[in-house]
Design a protein that fits this description.
256 residues; alpha+beta; Beta-Lactamase; 2 domains; six-stranded antiparallel sheet; three-stranded antiparallel sheet; 9 strands; Glycerol operon regulatory protein
């Protein structure tokens, strides 16, 4: 919904505020007033006043010149409070720790957000060769093991309603046809886990399982491994560890 679709100046202002914060959250770094105005399309005078208000409140920051803008520390505080108060994140902590110890690879807990998955918690691999990851990272569901594990808990028609027919290509290995993805989701349902073989990041393979706390599922666990460190025996161990972790965590998450 855009600000133009809302009635009343107060509602429009609130919508524009949220849209601005989402703009900055999705584009790290500092941005000029002109570049922000071009992206959001608000009148420049109104945009400037809104930005100055958000700067005064700490939601937006400026550089030393006062002419470039970026996300502010208040956004971090709100994001942290979301994680601190989330019951699934709290319940999953021992499982994430054990998965990290058992696999020695990078572990993620993520949540489906529309057509994307958002990282809620991670455990970094101790190996020197490991993927970059951070809490709050947002990735396409169709190209990730986390996302495919979650999409597989939806019906085919629900997936069609959620995803466009043509999907964004992240790497040369990404499945970009929705119907082909739906066929793959049938396999995911049958085997209980999803696999992303360099579909989101070249050189990286990921395995994911959905947590059965609700139907369709909202949260999933995954393990990310550089393909250079993935012989068949290690791959099987990771799959087994993820399936066991899901079973250990299921009783706790079903109560949430």
């Amino acid at each position: 919904m855009s600000a133009a679709d809302t009635g009343g100046s107060q509602v429009k202002s609130a919508v524009r505020t949220v849209e601005l914060l989402e703009y900055f959250a999705g584009r790290p770094g500092m941005h000029s007033l002109a570049s922000v105005q071009e992206a959001v399309g608000y009148p420049k005078s109104s945009l400037y006043m809104l930005l100055r208000t958000l700067v005064d409140l700490g939601w937006i920051e400026t550089d030393a010149t006062g002419t470039r803008y970026g996300i502010g520390v208040r956004a971090l505080l709100v994001g942290t409070s979301y994680l601190d108060g989330d019951e699934v994140v709290a319940a999953a902590r021992p499982t994430l720790d054990r998965l990290s110890d058992d696999t020695t690879e990078t572990i993620h807990l993520a949540r489906l957000d529309g057509t994307h998955v958002v990282s809620l918690a991670t455990r970094q691999s101790p190996h020197h060769l490991r993927p970059f990851t951070r809490v709050g990272r947002r990735l396409p569901a169709h190209s990730t093991a986390l996302g495919k594990a979650l999409l597989a808990t939806h019906t085919d028609d629900q997936v069609r309603s959620l995803l466009p027919p043509a999907l964004t290509r992240m790497t040369e290995h990404t499945r970009t046809d929705r119907e082909q993805l739906i066929e793959e989701l049938h396999t995911v349902r049958a085997q209980g886990y999803a696999v992303d073989r360099e579909e989101n990041t070249l050189g990286l393979c990921c395995f994911g399982v959905a947590l059965p706390s609700r139907t369709p599922a909202r949260d999933a666990l995954s393990c990310s491994v550089p393909v250079a460190r993935l012989p068949p025996a290690h791959e099987q161990m990771i799959k087994d560890a993820l399936l066991a972790a899901r079973e250990r965590l299921a009783p706790a998450t079903r109560r949430l």
